[in-house]
Queue: 4 jobs
Job 1
Amino acid sequence: MSHTHTRRDLTLAEKVGLLRKYNALENMSQTAAAGKLGIAQSVLSKLLKSRYEIETSFLSNETSSRKRKRDGKDPKAERSLKKWFASVQESDCRVDGPILKQKAEDFAKKLGHTTFSATDGWFSRWKKRENMLWSMFEGRSW
């Protein structure tokens, strides 16, 4: 009887948890450690190789339930928007969805991306990708 394994993507939180459990293990081979953790050695090897990126993403408040990191339509414009939004929040100013969408389009134009359009769908996905706190958007009509 053959035993087949199904592929299962790990969430960011699961990856961080496995890395923490690995750190708590005694000094042993990756194969033995993977067996104790209940994962394949190749999975453990990939986790260890990308440890810095995983931990940085987790600490930077990214969505811990995500399984893959995806970029939006215009990653540079989105990074600029996130930085701008963070500075606006520090100033204790309030902005709403239409302002954020317009600012995203402005950043895209400045970067030479004339086809970018900040639609409602894009904005919804951007909030999810950036793990925006829903409480800051309460009472707003997006």
Note: The two ends are 54 Å apart (CA to CA).
Job 2
Amino acid sequence: MKKIILLFVAFVLIGCNDKDTKRFQNGDIIFQDSPSTQSKAIKIATNSRYSHVGVIYREDGKVYVYEAVGPVLLTPLKDWIAHGVDHHYVVKRLKNPDILTPITLRNMRRVAKKFANRPYDALFGWSDDRVYCSELIWKIYKRALGIELGKLKKLRDFNLNHPVVKQKLYERYGKNVPLDEPVISPQGIFDSTLLKEVYSN
């Protein structure tokens, strides 16, 4: 009995129940604040509450998040939520529901599959050799659907003067910061006018 109660409490704390997951669709984009060491710098530099993003996959009645977090992989939704700060997350979806047809969703999976197991890009480069979270989502939508979720910026366009950001940049690049490297941030995708919010806990 005690074990059942503990499981129930954990389930509630994670903040995701069956009713929630049933409303999520393939292709939905999910945002959270990661507790990683670089998260604070990302949020300061991009003026964002969120530092991590993934895309929803539904398979065999189960819900997953496809994400670039170490290697690019599928993470069960409940595990993904549990990894975020306070288990808070927001889900967004394309405003035009006609875009995500069975054919276009298959195309998204085809594109996404090419990134499977790619290592995480801690230097935020724009090549496909290594991938960071928002880059993965942006490239899937761009290459599969021809849609740009957010405007690409250059690294120099962000707030790089804060001490926390400066320290992280120095750790990663030394004195050779690639200021002209194309970058898409989680906030850049979050702010896309093509998306609407469908859930937030």
Note: The chain has one domain: 15-199.
Job 3
Amino acid sequence: MRIFKTAWFERFAQARDIPDALLREAVERAERGSVDALLGGGVLKQRIPRVESGRSGGYRAIVLLRPAERAFFVYGYAKSDRSDLRPDELAQFKHMARHVLGLTDDQLAALVARGDFEEVRVHE
């Protein structure tokens, strides 16, 4: 399973000290069937805990997932900042999922090289 994050999500994670290990753990939970919210079209919402705290008061991440192949962290927010996505936002994430999950390896490599996506490190 390859895991990526958008440049926007990388800035979000850095500002909140969210390590790649927590992103990998969130994808591993999803792969085992423990998904916080299936939103349809390859889009899911997964909880990410604050460091040294629990998941319930932490962050929410919007993840585009093709099981056993790829996951993309595209958006995040603190539970205290907002309750849920608006319908228009969800529609945009579903549209994005159709595009991003259909990328070829060469297209994805070009987007990583351009800085649009960053691969989540295996070891920190």
Note: The chain has a mean pLDDT of 90.
Job 4
Amino acid sequence: MRRAANGEFITKHYPYQALTKGEYGKVSFEVTIEPDGALGSCEVTGSSGFATLDRETCEFIVKYAKLKPVLNAEGRAARAVQQGFVNWQLPAGARKAPTPASLGKIRLDRFGKPIDMNKTVCRTTPRTGSRVGSTKVCMTRTEWARTERENREGVQDMQSVGGGCGAASTPCPRR
């Protein structure tokens, strides 16, 4: 009974972009549960083969998961890491997309182990101007790398434009 209800809930909240493309599959993830029961982080550990579903899985978990604090051996709430998965199954009659031939380009880390660049990683950052607010963003490692590269290039462009204060076109303000 519970499995059927879970399936209906997942179908109801199926990522629209993935549904229209016919994407489906099992996405494994790992979550960190804070002592107060809040979700600290979510990371995809097993890909469906579709970047959209992988990315949306952690967003789905963050939005809908109801978590309770995990108790340690002394009965106190403690930070814990737990694994799970979402099996995204298309509704009856939906057209399935062909499965991807590969999961994308694989890089090696400094120890020679493969890094799946399509693995989704969620990061939580403090919200500017707030001591308590934070923003959670989930992207694939490829998307994180591209964003960081674009940010770096933007800063370099700003630093090199016009030579800054004192250049012929921009005099320094008087003090």
Note: The beta strands are 25-33, 39-46, 70-71, 77-78, 80-88, 106-108, 114-116, 120-126, 134-140.
